[in-house]
Design goal:
mainly alpha, 78% helix
């Protein structure tokens, strides 16, 4: 197997978008560990130094994904990204209502971020399938991982304010690490496809 075999502009944009997502995850994980680890006492400077680049790399990753999925594929028909984002917005609305009214969870940005991440990854998978880069086996494997990570993230999101100390620290870390792990699997499958 050859790494990056016949990568097109679309492949490089989507791969770079995932690299941005991975870097965002690493920055956010580092921030979480330095700020929320029991006994941690990180300064506002550390927060600024880690979260501003995380925000910038996250936005850059989204831009790369949007540009990458817009390049015509031509081999097969994938699910249009507009459909994926409409479904993601509907899912976000449902999960938001459930989290507020059923579980009485305060609203924070994490739910939106996890749904946006999943939607972006699903758009990338669809684009790579449509271009002939991914087979159905790779699509199903990544789909399973993304849905599992998102479900685990939602469960952690619901539980976070019910926990304290080490339990809340670990609960907040689980979605970040699981999303980063999914991105690594995506990297490997994409690089060797």
């Amino acid at each position: 197997m050859i790494v990056f075999r016949n990568f097109t502009a679309k492949d490089w944009l989507l791969f770079s978008g995932n690299a941005g997502m991975f870097l965002t995850s690493l920055l956010y994980i580092t921030w979480w560990v330095l700020v929320f680890r029991p006994g941690a006492a990180a300064s506002r400077f550390i927060t600024t130094v880690l979260l501003i680049p995380a925000f910038i790399t996250g936005i850059a990753a989204i831009v790369l994904f949007v540009i990458g999925v817009q390049i015509p594929a031509g081999v097969r028909r994938g699910i249009p990204s507009g459909i994926i984002f409409i479904a993601a917005l509907l899912l976000y609305g449902i999960l938001l209502i459930v989290s507020i009214y059923v579980f009485h969870r305060p609203v924070t940005s994490e739910l939106f971020i996890m749904i946006l991440w999943a939607a972006g990854e699903l758009c990338a998978i669809s684009a790579l399938y449509a271009s002939g880069r991914f087979a159905m086996s790779e699509v199903f494997a990544l789909l399973f991982l993304i849905l599992s990570a998102t479900a685990a993230g939602f469960i952690c999101y619901l539980q976070y304010y019910k926990l304290s100390g080490t339990a809340s620290f670990v609960d907040g870390l689980i979605p970040l690490v699981s999303d980063a792990a999914v991105i690594v699997v995506f990297f490997v499958l994409h690089a060797f496809s």
